[in-house]
Amino acid sequence: MLKYPKKFEYASNWSRTCRRVYRLQSRCTNNPLHGRATVVHHLHYRRSLLRRILEIFLLHFPSTSVSGYEIPGWDCVSLCSGCHENYYGRSSSRNSVHHPNVWVQFGGLNNHQKLIKATELRIKFWILALMP
Fold first, then answer.
1. Residues of 52-65 as b/e, b for ≥16 C-beta within 10 angstroms?
2. DSSP state of 83
């Protein structure tokens, strides 16, 4: 049986989350020398407890949508478009956060940054955010 890709949906407040991330830290987290960030990248996707409970009763399919409760600097970071380069979640560029060495691609909300890269990006984000 073929599995068709599910439509991936961001939460309705995603643009507000992006503004909060840019307000905290507007430079590229992966390489600050790249200048201003243009993309907000999820290190991992979060689902709300309510959506997980509803999934148990098959009332909602939370595996296709993000909860909208992302914490800037922990769940998502700012990047330039070069560091965020991806084609269907993959990139051949070693500088990209979607390169297979640093990104796990299982599909849907199961995609995530590998722990070492996620930790590095979180630390860089907050160092840059705290710098004047």
1. eeeeeeeeeebbeb
2. T
Residue 62: its pLDDT value, please? 47
Q: Which of 107, 46, 104, 36 is nearest to 76 (CA)?
A: 46
| One-letter amino acid for residue 7 of the chain | K
Residue with tokens 């905290």: 24
In this prediction, the residues of the chain whose per-residue pLDDT falls under 70 are: 1-8, 47-65, 67
How far does CA 46 lie from the centroid of its chain? 9
Predicted confidence at residue 1, as pLDDT, reads 42
pLDDT at 38: 94
Model confidence, pTM: 0.81
Distance CA 64, CA 8 (A): 5
Q: How far, CA to CA in Å, does 8 sit from each of 4, 11, 24, 57, 92?
A: 12, 10, 26, 21, 23
Whole-angstrom Cα distance, residue 83 to residue 102? 12
Q: Cβ distance 59 to 51 under 8 Å?
A: no
Which segments within the chain are labelled E, that is strand? 39-42, 76-79, 103-104, 112-113
